[in-house]
Amino acid sequence: MSGTWTLDPLAPVVGYWFDLLHVDADVRLAPYAQVFQQLLDPDSTLRRNHAGANVVCLRWEDLLPHGNATGADTPALLAARIDELHAAITVLPHHVPCLVVVGPGDAANRVFNEATRALSARLAGIPEVHVQDGADAMARYRVGRVQDAASDRFGHVPYTGDALVALGTAIARWYAARVRPPIKLFAVDADHTLWSGVVGEQGVDGLRVDPGHLALQRALAAQAGAGALLGLLSKNEEADLRAVFTQRHDLALGWQDFIAHRVDWNPKPDHLRDIAAALGIGLDSVVFLDDNPLECAQMRAASPSTLTVRVPEDPQRLEAFVEHLWLFDRHAVTAEDRDRAAMYRDNAARADVLRGTTSLQAFLDGLELVVDIDPPRPGDLPRLSQLTRRTNQFNASLLRLQEGELAATGAHAFHRGVRARDRFGDYGLVGQLRASPQGGCLLVDLFMLSCRALGRGIEHRMLAAAGAHAQALGLAEVAVRFTAGERNTPVRRFLETAFSTAADGDACVFRMPASQAAAVAFDASATDNGDIDDGAPVAAALSVPAANAARDGGAVYEHIAHHLATAADIGRAIAARSQPRPALATGFIAPAPGLEHAIAAIWREVLRIDAAGAQDPFRELGGKSIHLVQVHRLLLERLGIDVDITTLFQHPTVASLAAHLSTRSAPAGVDAAQQRGRRMREAHARAALLAAARKHRLGNGEPA
Predict the structure, then answer these.
(1) Tens digits of per-residue pLDDT, 579-632?
(2) Which three-class secondary structure state does DSSP give residue 378?
(3) Cα separation of 480 and 447, whole Å?
(4) 595-662 in CATH: which number?
(5) Which residues pair with 505 in a beta bridge?
(6) d(CA 512, CA 501)
């Protein structure tokens, strides 16, 4: 993370979320206020980061001379800074996602707001770069006071504690959504979840749809539009439930929006397993939403890998729940994602045809399959990158590539996207292969195909295309790089059959003459129908965060949505995860009641330790200069005591600081807002007296 201001207070907030979600990532801070150096220096922390993500935090005030936001030349200066930022961010490694957080600044500053929108538009064309307005995090996490002038003055930390918590949370939430495996199915209950009431008791007209219910329905509809599938699981009579969707026109979802319906009195875990098997997805990619604690407990027990989340029973809490359910966060939606529900319906139609045929060849002839293997088209990179990250079963090398890495494919490389369609519908962009000449051979390092397109001979056409290209280049051989994974047995079997050789270990290269590769063709008679049944769920090979989330059964996401919806709540949760007091040479001496106790509480919060003794040296407790800035802020906010940083350095224990402050501060516990109000009233009174005196002098003909 690099910023134009001091980012140190953000690190523990981001770290808290990573610990809570079991995200395997370290938070590293670049040198203070060196954003442009970090972006432009090839040896910088940001430029050398080839995994994880980069975060850049900006304040427009910091990019202007003397922070002047009111000058007539401010718009022109900001436009120049935007040009410079665009040029600098362009040279970042494009395979590493980058989040640019702007502000929050003064909400009333129109020039700053326009600059934020302009920067977002300017960076929109750079792969893997995303812009967030810090003001959005302030609104989402209900931050009241955002700016902290005193903290800004002493340590260039321009924000209050709540604002820092909200910013750190927004950063962690963005990254968590990127590393979490995609949710493929949202299975949702009906009564008391999509509406209030039970249709079997109140009837269709007796159900109540509150704003919270509409928020949940709209969120689910948005997920469907972004590529997730929706399933309906309800203990009801199906006719009653159909009547609700037919007769109620105040719903944001329709019966047809659900790709699967299981409406009866049988156990929901059994139904969910059936749906997942029919769709060919793992239960670890399913979210189950229900208001009933018993149903949720049964699902967690019967299907622990499913992300089970209990919906609040109180509809007044639903809107906040929806806004803070991180499982609704999605990134990089492709055209294939948006068409996924239609593709699954097409697959169901194909399955019906397959069941009615006597041979695979007859089935394929009936499909009228068309396959295009062409250079990538404009706009294909997001989907091609997605294929590398999502394709597991038929992925030879298991290379996971970002858009920038694919865009950097050399001019001499052979890179092809694979599209397919048949009489039932368009499969879309389902595969890719990439190869480059290596000596006398064409080495294929990307060879992958979506599981929904397997068993139709498309993989054979891909290998033949590589062979034909090798022949065109005068190369004698085609080689395919293979790396074994937990789920890519299907591609291993294909390569071993096509190359007539067994894989030599978990990492090897399959080789054959180019002429032989060019002649590879699909023999349907040598394949049984089971080879194209990709509907059976495969045991998932989960990433570390996914595995731990599955272990928690979605409980962590439920806890966040129910209990961590404001910056204040999150701040208290972070403070509660304190570390033990370090072992010091001096024994623990309890702070005295009153001012010592209040100061020790602030030290504990800032240093995130469970105890701070009256004679414990601040530095030996882990305190640093940036922590003193936070101590200063909390002394002012909580106790109404405004003390300079130098004084805090000079009094390194709770007891010595309390003794010093007791001789010159307001009584402990005086509200800071009251003191500010008193000072403001005194200033207004002085101004009124000066104005009266000036008026008197002018009336007597004296100089003003």
Answers:
(1) 889 999 888 999 999 899 999 999 998 888 889 999 999 999 999 888 888 898
(2) coil
(3) 8
(4) 1.10.1200.10
(5) none
(6) 10
The residue among 120, 308, 315 whose CA lies nearest residue 208 is: 315
Tell me the pLDDT band of 349, cut-offs 50, 70 and 90: low
Has residue 687 got a pLDDT over 80?
no
The answer regarding whether domain 2-179 maps to CATH 3.40.50.1110 reads yes
Entry pTM = 0.70
Dump strand ranges (E) for 454-501: 477-483
> How many residues does the structure list for the chain?
704
Arch. (CATH architecture) of 185-331: 3-Layer(aba) Sandwich (3.40)
> Would you say the CATH fold of 595-662 matches that of 371-525?
no
Query: Does a cis peptide bond (omega within 30 degrees of 0) precede residue 104?
Result: yes
Strands (E), 507-546: 507-513
Quote the tokens at residue 80: 């120049």
Tally of CB atoms within 10 A around 581: 17
- Residue 196 DSSP class: B
Pairing label, strands 229-234, 185-188: parallel
Domain ranges across the chain: 2-179, 185-331, 371-525, 595-662
CATH superfamily, with its number, for domain 371-525:
Gcn5-related N-acetyltransferase (GNAT) (3.40.630.30)
Amino acid at 337: D
Q: In whole angstroms, give the CA distance from residue 210 to residue 194.
A: 9
Give yes or no for a contact between 514 and 258, defined as CB atoms under 8 angstroms apart. Answer: no
C-beta of residue 196 within 8 angstroms of C-beta of residue 315: yes
Class of residue 4 by CB neighbours under 10 A (exposed 0-12, middle 13-18, buried 19+): buried
Report d(CA 484, CA 503) in Å as an integer. 9
Residue 469 CA to residue 466 CA, distance in Å, equals 5
Question: Tell me: the pLDDT tens digits for 454-496?
Answer: 888 999 999 999 999 999 999 999 999 999 988 888 899 999 9
Exposure string (b/e) for 178-201, b if CB count within 10 Å is 16 or more? bbbbbbbbbbbbbbbbbbbbbbee
> CA-CA distance, 418 to 482, in Å (whole number)?
19
Q: How far is CA 51 from CA 41, 349, 383, 401, in A?
A: 18, 42, 20, 11
Q: Please name the helix (run of DSSP H) or strand (run of DSSP E) that holds residue 309, with its range, or none.
A: strand 307-310
d(CA 260, CA 281): 13
- The three-class DSSP label of residue 106 is coil
Name the helix (H) or strand (E) containing 425. Answer: strand 425-438
Sheet architecture: strand order including 129-133: 2-3, 54-58, 98-102, 129-133
